[in-house]
Structure formats: C-alpha cells, structure tokens
Amino acid sequence: MADDESRQTTFGADGELSDRDPDADGTDDFGDPKDADETDGGYNRYAVSSLLQKAVRRSDEEVAAWAAWELARSGFAWNLWERLHLYVVEDLAAGQEVALLVDRYETLATDRWEPNEWRGRLCAIHAALACARARSSREGPNADEFFGNAAAARAEARETGEAPEADFPVGEFEPGGEYDVAFDAHTGEGSRLGRGAEFFKSHGARVGPEGEGDLSARWQRLNMALHEVDFSGAQIAHAIDPVDADDRWDEPSFDDEG
Asked: Which domain of life is it from (predicted)?
C-alpha cells in the first residue's frame, strides 16, 4: 500500500500522522482547541478530503468548493493539492485539461501567495470547481484493476493448462495475429521478417479513423513518391486512408513488400 493510501486509512486517529501548516490557527470556529486532524469547522480532515473526492466524482460543484475551502483555510492545503492532483487521474476522463489548471492554481496558491489566505483559498475553490465541472470517469482505476486481474488470471491459467477467465485485449500478440502491424522494423520480430520502410510507410504509420488532414496527407503522398522505395499507387492510397472504425487493425498484403 502506498504511503499516502495508508495515511488515509487511519482517518486521522493517530495525531502523529498529521501535518498541519505550523502557521495555522490552533482553535476552531468556536474558539475551542483543535485536534491534530481537525479542520476549523470542527470536521475530521480525512473525512473532508474524502468528501472532496466524492464531490468531484459526482460533479457536485458546491460541495467540492466548500471542501477545498475548508481544507485550505484550516492549514491542510498540502493535503488538498496532493489529493486534487490524484483526483484528475483517478476520477476524471483522460485528456481533461483541468490537470494543467490544478497545477497552475497550486503554483499560484503556494508559490506566489499563502495557501490559507484569501487568494490561496480562491485558488483552492477554483481548482475544485474545475475538477467538479470536468467529465467524471473511473476509467483509469477500472482499467488498472482489470489489467491486474487479467494478469493474475493468465498466470493461473498457465498453471492449470486451461483458458484464462480474462485475458489482455491483445491476446497472444504475435506476428501473423490481429495486431501483426505492430511488428515492423522497430521490433526484433519485424526486423527478422525483413519489414523495413516499405512496410512501415504502407501500414505502420496509418492513423484513424478520423484520418489525416489534407495537408498531412499531401505531405505523405509526396514523401512516398520521393522515397527510395518504389511504392505502388495502391500502397500510397492505403497509407493515407484512415483505418476502419469497425476493424482498426485490418491490413491488406502487398505482394511486393519486403
């Protein structure tokens, strides 16, 4: 278990695990002394951090904004920013630009300003709102867990000699199989098969299914026409054609390819 995960599981029961900002006020909103893991509002900071993550995951903007504000004002800004950076990869869809925004907001809050003063708190709120407004998805953790389970199933199947209950999406992954195009000159298998520039240009460099833009397609046609390999018209046309959205790995065979 990672260090931060083990810290989370304590729920703040052990004060030695706390790392409050030493400049933070030692009393809560009611004037009472705060425990090591207590926020200014009298809440456990582990619970508030968990609530922040669930609010991001469920796209609840108001709750996310409050939880971020509560952690920041209570001297737990380090905890807030650490968790937000995790949330953008654990609870949001891949490709969300909010990951860059969170990093920028943290820089402003911690390098330019003080994290628990009003400008730092605004950064915390903005970062939490940005995360809550981004598209939520557990695709990263779900993929990681499934691939791990598939690895275990494959290993168990090898021991028993039976087919695995779950397998990697590429299956056996070998030359001649569905993903044969991956074995080009950049791999040992492809080199042994004599697959050089002709194979790569005709098959390995294809994109899609959205296809190349007009300018990129023009450059590719010219590059292949000027190449030392004498590409056929069919090879050039195929290299520029987008892959089939329903069969992304299907590739024809050109008899004159090396």
From this structure: Archaea
